[in-house]
Design goal:
Structural class: alpha/beta
Number of helices: 11
CATH topology of the largest domain: Rossmann fold
Strand order of the largest sheet: 3-2-1-4-6-5
Number of domains: 2
Largest sheet: 6 strands, mixed
Order of helices and strands: HEHEHEHHEHEEHHHHEEH
Radius of gyration: 20 Å
Strand content: 5-15%
Helix content: 40-55%
Length: 273
Amino acid sequence: MTKARRMMQENIKLIDLIIELVDARVPLSSRNPDIDELGKNKARLILLNKADLAEDRRNDEWMEYFKKQGYSVVKVNSKKGGGIKSIQSVIQEACKEKMERDRKRGILNRPVRAMVVGIPNVGKSTFINALAGKACAKTGNKPGVTKGKQWIRLNKNVELLDTPGILWPKFEDQTVGLRLAFIGSIKDEILQTEELASELVKFLNQSYPGVLEEKYTIESSEDNYEVLRRIAESRHCLVRGSELDVEKAAAILLDDFRNGRLGRLTLELPEEN
């Protein structure tokens, strides 16, 4: 992480625009606070990625929230290409002042250089591939697939710099860590699957009552672990013949949430911040 941060500091001098991807389900929790510090005086574009997995009206609320802070904002779904076509014109708009300064100094047709940043597993490489229209950045659904920097020339107007995902060194707020674990930005190997799934059950029961009952055809319960047991029963997750495999049920729930199979869900709202 320190190495990636240093590399970012060195490269920030070379760029005109920072394109920051956040996860539309947790737009604030999935922002790296270091980027604001590193990107002072640069044009900024925030992409609400995976917008198809979050509630549409909440996406609009978040767009307003970021626009009020002076960012350009676009809703995108990099996997299916949603919102990608509008990016080029938004980049030009965001860098209008820089291009005007260049023009006055007699510098014409210099491409906008943009750095693509975001925490692990937020979909940077998928976004770059969708924007460039070819597989030029490695993708994977594991955090940390991008290992080093690479320049990608989109066209004569825009060049992109891809960077590895950076997580900040420590979370000041446990809720942030929890939300990032829900969306898969923290490696599952270091987490307690059942504990995490139980916290997700708690959140869903509070914010989206009825979602779990409908999805897994189960009776509701105020006991989070009981809900996991009922999911295990409903999905026939068994060990040694008849014992319920709650850990497997927990993994199913997390996977269903991450892939949008529970419906469009937003984990944090602008008014909470």
